[in-house]
Structure formats: C-alpha cells, structure tokens
Amino acid sequence: MRQVRHHFGDQDREAFGKSLGVSRASLAYYERGERTPDANVLSRYRTDLGVSLEWLLTGAGEMFADTSAVPSGPSFHTIRPDLFREVGRLVAKLHKAEGITLPPDALFDEQSSAYNALIERAEDPSDVDELSSLLPWLETRLKRQLSAAKAEPGAGKRGA
Question: Which residues form the HTH cro/C1-type domain (predicted)?
C-alpha cells in the first residue's frame, strides 16, 4: 500500500487517507502491515486509483489493473547530488536533534521523501537558487513531521 502512495507523489498520509476515506492512523497501520484493510478500503484503491486487487492482496502481477488508464504519478527530474546531500544532512541533523536513530535504509527513505517534497514545492525544479531558498521551508516541514511522528503511537520513531 505504501508503494501506491509513493506512485502518487508521496502525499502525506493525512491527505492520501482522506482521499480514500480512511484516517491517517489507519493508513499508517495498513502501510506497515499491522492491520488489514476492510473490503471498502480495498474497493476504493481499485475504483479510485485503479490498483489491481490481485497485486494489492498478493503482490503478483502489475500494480495497476489497466496500465493504459493509470493515473499519472509524479514528474521526474534528475537528482542533483549536491542538493540531495544537503537534504540528507538536514534530515540526519533533525533526527539527531530529536534523539531518533534510524537504520540506514529508513534514513535514506526519509532523505528521498524530503528531496521529492523540495522538488515538488519549487516552481522551477531546475533552478538551483530557488531550491536552495526552499531549504528553510523544508526544515520547518520536517520538524513538524518528526514531532507528529513521535507523538503518533506505534510510529516506530523511537528515541536513541
């Protein structure tokens, strides 16, 4: 289920869950595999997003039932290594400040999501100056997300 949200641009759980008629917490449980979604939720994935139920339930086949009618995902841009590193340092710094230690893969996932958020926020993702000017916005956004994640029971973001 996490892969579906990722396909649609890594919207935050609140907005994505709302579009499917489920709470942020429920979506988090489903994505972590801690709970099984009911038939209504599975139906919304199929009818609203075009996700193949076979893929959703078993992982077999294609993610989308009709690949010719797949709703578009995010647009892709070439990763700027210097900016990606800077975002990575910011993510690591903020996690350290909150006393959160993540495994390397999870930290990389957080870095990638933050980088994508920065790119999506920019009017011109190829403008390095604009991207750099958005770093304070990204820092504020990440701080809010970390605070919310620490407050959410079962979020897995434990102190070191």
Answer: 14-56
Q: How far apart (Å, rounded) are the C-alpha atoms in residues 7 and 10?
A: 7
Is residue 62 within 8 A of residue 56, CB to CB? The reply is no
**Percent of the residues in the chain that have a pLDDT greater than 90, as a whole number:** 22
DSSP state of 22: -
Q: Please provide the size of the chain in residues.
A: 160
Of 40, 49, 47, 72, nearest to 1 (Cα)? 49
Cα separation, 63 vs 61, whole angstroms = 7
Domain boundary among 69, 98, 121: 69
* Other Cβ atoms closer than 10 A to 124: 9
Give me the domain span that covers residue 35: 2-69
Mean pLDDT of the chain: 84
Q: What is the DSSP letter of 75?
A: -
Q: Would you state the structure tokens that stand for residue 109, as one six-digit string?
A: 């996932």
Taking the whole predicted model, whether its pTM rises above 0.70 is answered as no
Distances (CA, A) of 46 to 24, 59, 65: 19, 14, 8
